[in-house]
Specification:
Chains A, B: Pfam families: DUF1507 (PF07408). Chains A, B: This is UPF0358 protein BACCIP111883_00622. 2 copies of one chain form a homodimer. Chain A has a single domain (about 1-90), classed as Orthogonal Bundle (Helix Hairpins), CATH 1.10.287.750. The first copy, chain A, is about 85% helix and about 0% strand. Chain A is built from 3 helices and no strands. In chain A, helix 1 packs antiparallel against helix 2 and helix 1 packs parallel to helix 3 (about 70-90). The interface between A and B is medium-sized, with 20 and 20 residues.
Chain lengths: ~90, ~90
């Protein structure tokens, strides 16, 4: 029973972080489709702010012992790869 | 046993958020003592960034079910009162 509750918080933390990571990706996608180019300072500011917010959430989850540093880094790496792919696709258009 | 573990995460979340709130207060105190005045854009930018980071941590803790919205707001209100007192003390000097 005790370990089930711990797993529940752990799983919820990871699923929230992944959802927030996806939100950043979608936000950047929308920005690329509709508003501004990646060279635009607004794009960089939005991305920086959102990445900072996500990294603070991750750091908090690590300090709570809900996720490992590696799990946090894996989510960030995945997001960075997806952002790069998005950026490359944008450059080809 | 199960409820003890939940309380542990709840208490740890609150104590981390209070510690981060105190860190912001100390950072602003150091900035006032040594670097810049509250009117300076740097002061506002640092404060905005740190408050945004703290609010993201709180929001994350609320979504995890570790703290209530009221508990988060109470920590923020306390910080705002302390920052106001700091600012008023600075103005008197």
């Amino acid at each position: 029973m005790a370990s089930e509750i711990v797993v529940d918080h752990r799983e919820k933390a990871i699923s929230l972080l992944k959802a927030d990571s996806d939100k950043i990706l979608k936000l950047i996608q929308v920005q690329m489709d509709n508003l501004t180019m990646p060279q635009c300072p607004l794009y960089e500011e939005v991305l920086d702010t959102q990445m900072f917010g996500l990294s603070r959430e991750m750091d908090f989850a690590v300090r709570l012992g809900l996720i490992t540093e590696k799990e946090g880094k894996d989510i960030l790496s995945k997001l960075e790869i997806e952002l790069s792919a998005l950026y490359e696709a944008w450059e080809r258009n």
